[in-house]
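BACKBONE GEOMETRY TOKENS:
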Amino acid sequence: MVGGFSRPKKDKAIKVGSGQTVKTGQILVRGIDTYKPGLNVKGLGTLFALLPGKIYFSKKKTSHGKIRTFINIAPLKEKTK
């Protein structure tokens, strides 16, 4: 608090969009509970990538009728020489 004014945190946000490529360990979401970890994603408050690939989102309905949004990573295909 500088000068007595409180400022909202700006680091709580989704950091990537659908179709973007990410590296291993890259942060995908920080501080938002509406997104849940899916395939190849790990974390609770901060979701991060477990392997390099492309981001895609999926929605699933829970047994209580609530819709959850999951962040998933499709692995990149290895180039063979």
